[in-house]
Design a protein that fits this description.
By secondary structure, the chain is α/β, with parallel strands linked by helices. The protein has a domain of about 200 residues: Spore Coat Polysaccharide Biosynthesis Protein SpsA, Chain A. The protein is built from eight helices and ten strands. The strands form two sheets. Strands 3-2-1-4-8-6-9 form a seven-stranded mixed β-sheet, sandwiched between helices. Strands 5-10-7 form a three-stranded mixed β-sheet. Strand 1, helix 1 and strand 2 form a beta-alpha-beta unit. Helix 1 packs parallel to helix 2. The N and C termini lie far apart (about 115 Å). About 0% of the residues have low confidence.
């Protein structure tokens, strides 16, 4: 049977999470032939060994960068449809079949939302609202406003290539712009994946300002104008880093609470010292009326 679907997974030091992702893919219910490609993006751990143990086709891309890794995997894919996802993601049993069913007529790509596993409170609210807004816009206009590279598939014959000079966003915002030139992109709001929230564990402000503001939006704009990676890729966050970040945040919260408590005590003590004392009355009281 010819390969119908090729799932491409870029992986850098993902030995800790890749096994669960590949096990989730093995449970997919589809009648088509599927190949799973793991692109080892210069890992320093046992990522390649884990991929081989689960029967994945392992490629090596020595150039660091997710766009270079996805490009390597896509060019080597044998399937008619290439599915892009990540090494820290889980899938519903019918995920691949639903993707394949979406390729009708002039459709060149099918994209869907993602959910964040074990997310902080704000990531359980704002990303779902964002994806709901994308779905509403698609229903009204037929236009996909954004794709996440952890849940998008496209026809290999219509592959426009990734801009490998972009370290962030080239596999999403820029890639969507290129796909639109080839044909119709479909948004399937009912076919989500579940991915790690590890990059969000540094807090709301850090995620908005640093992760998305600097490493994503500014990085994408500057590198696209310069046509080369002037700004480097965001630092990798892995499970061991998540534990370290959580410990640091707990220490920060304890230290902040202690500082606030000390400030309250100091202010209370100072206000008592400044309060005027009641006048002292000596001698017998007299009626002065």
């Amino acid at each position: 049977m010819p390969v119908r679907l090729s799932v491409v997974i870029p992986a850098y030091d993902e030995a800790g999470s890749l096994g669960a992702t590949l096990a989730s893919l093995a449970e997919q219910q589809t009648a088509s032939e599927v190949e799973v490609i793991v692109v080892d993006n210069a890992s320093t751990d046992a990522t390649a060994a884990v991929a081989a143990r689960y029967g994945a086709r392992v490629l090596v891309e020595p150039r660091r960068g997710v766009c270079a890794a996805r490009q390597c995997g896509t060019l080597a894919a044998r399937g008619e449809i290439v599915v892009s996802t990540d090494a820290d993601t889980r899938f519903l049993p019918g995920w691949l079949q639903r993707i394949e069913d979406g390729f009708v007529d002039d459709v060149v790509a099918v994209a869907g939302p993602c959910r964040y596993a074990d997310a902080p409170w704000w990531a359980r609210i704002f990303p779902p609202l964002y994806f709901a807004a994308l779905a509403a816009r698609y229903r009204l206009t037929g236009r996909v406003g954004y794709i996440t590279a952890t849940n998008v598939a496209f026809r290999r014959a219509d592959f426009p290539g990734y801009d490998t000079s972009l370290t962030q966003g080239g596999d999403e915002v820029d890639f969507l712009r290129r796909l639109r030139r080839r044909g119709r992109v479909v948004w399937d709001a009912g076919n989500p994946v579940s991915t790690s929230s590890r990059r969000m564990n540094q807090g709301l402000v850090h995620t908005v300002v640093v992760s998305y503001g600097y490493h994503y939006a500014l990085n994408l704009a500057v590198n696209r104008v310069a046509a080369r990676p002037l700004l480097g890729a965001a630092p990798a966050i892995r499970e061991q880093d998540t534990a370290r970040i959580q410990r640091r945040r707990r220490r920060w919260r304890v230290g902040t609470a202690a500082a606030i408590g000390a400030l309250v005590l100091v202010r209370r003590h100072a206000s008592r010292r400044r309060a005027p004392s009641a006048p002292r009355i000596t001698g017998p009281l007299r009626d002065v009326r």
